[in-house]
Amino acid sequence: MPYGDGILESPADRYGKTTLCMRNAKRLFKCAAYMVYFVGVLVFAVASKGSFLLMTQSLGNRLQEKQYASRWSFMLVATICVPYVFLFLEALAKSLFRNRRGPVFTDLITIFLLESIHTFGVCLLVFRVLPSCDVIRGLLLMNAVCTIPAFCKLTLSKSNSRPMLRFLTLFIDLAAFVAQCSVYFVVTSTQYTAFLTKPLTPTTTTQTTHVGESLSSDTFDTLNTALSNSIKATTDTIEQVRIRFGWEAPVALFCVSIVWWENYVDRDIKLGKLNIPLGTYKRHLQSVRSKANIGASIWKIALTVAFSFLLLPKERFENVFVSFNSNPTNNIPNDPSLHTGSDFNNYDAGSLSNQFDMNTNNDLPVRHKRQMPLFPTDDNNTIMGKIGGNADQMSLFPGNDDDPNIAADPFDFQPDREKTIDDYWHSIGPFVPMIIHFFSTGLCYYFSKSACKMQMQRVAFAVPLTLATPVTLAIMIGLCQWKTDQIVFIREIMYWDCSENLNTTRITWHIIIGLCLWYLSQLWITSHIWFPENKRLATTETLFVLPQYDSSLIEQSLLLNRRRNEPEHQKNKLEEHFEDLDIIDGMAAFSEDEKLENNTKIYLCGTLWHETISEMILMLKSIMRMDIDQSARRQARDEFQVIDPDYYDMEGV
Fold this sequence. Notes:
two-stranded antiparallel ribbon; two-stranded antiparallel sheet; globular
């Protein structure tokens, strides 16, 4: 026998090596999962915010044609309504296949009223406020939607900490509430919308150059006169624009924040003998929300469409799917839409396109004819001489069908040019931000929900969502420093507007206020995300107060909607269950821990009809190992008060 063959490895040694290998593989897999979820949530959140701001900035574009302006309007409406469609399907499925309570009439009135206020705030923010701001100010303004949650946390939340710590918490809550309310002073007292200081004349010369080449001097003078009058009328309405933006932004932010009040109300309102059972009604409202959301989701979709028509001019919904030639040489629109700051921000004052149409000829030919000499020297060879016309009636457009004195050349035609990559990009490019936003928002919500279910909340939920705003802001500031005026994706159609030089004092102060007041106060108001109490694989209803998400504010909706007190919610669900079974009185005999106890129970059942001896032995060994493990877990829980999330009960049958 060779030396060493008698020294055999024991089963315990082999098991130990296998276990160590499995542990190391498990650790590597967990680290990889943490990294994937962290990067996924952060990247998708940044992509969602960036693509959404790109659509709102393009909606406020003052120099685009109506086809694109209409497309941005419809794409934003569709973007807002996508979560409502998912909400309708989810609520319908729960109502059909689960035992859910039904709402009474007062519950429906309350839910529909709150959802209507929230929908109006979202539409006002998306269709009026954000398009009036540059991309940096719009991003910072999104962090100021916590007014109602801040007030509820200050006045209606429970605090079980020590007196000194309770006083400190109360002081910070008050500071956060004041910081959130400061947005109303900033947008009303300072010139927060940068478009009011930008030049209102068109910044491009493509269309003007070709118009000048094709129009006569009289028509060109008429065009300049109309444009000057329009700019003068626009300048007269700047003060009206500033006043209206001063009330639109505060109202929009306040209405948006009202939807998250449930997560920050822990108790009833008691003022002397007056008792308002707000906390009790909140718990009742959550129990009947599933069936009420069937009608509420449809109601929100209808309101979004209605508010979009009310808040946007009617020209924004015309020619949505009309294609047009993107060749610059043919880009002389019949209805030029040179949108100015007044055109978008002051619909009641009239738009530049309307004034422009009243003073120009809309029947300008756009076909390219062969060039003929305008001033021939030989009278016998001139066009006027051949047709007997008068030289004073000569037109700048030879072969014009509208002029009966000029003969058209039947062989004068020019074939359509082949489409290029730029033409296709102009056609499908405006839909790219909507597609990116749809997938990035949905994946961000899915990754965030999965991270909370797998108890990866601090690393894969709290950290990336906290970093979403600073990372997006850093990217936009870097791009604006590189391209000082605009970050252009499609010229005059799709871009981020930087508005002004970042070295100016006004934008610097706005960035400081946005980060130090609105962003930091939002972090404190949503600080509960750092202390999760949920069990593994908890339901979505346990993790989040409201179903689904807000596509326009994905980061804020996830942070503010994450449930603050999971044990209380679990207790309320158990009480509702026993109340439905009419045994709620029997719950008083149990302690609080027993009420919340929800242990997994494993039933062992096996048949031994035709198993071999080895199979029977293996089955008995498995039963014994499970019994030893369960006994150890029970002793650790009962004797040493160890909280074991994997505890289970076992029973053999």
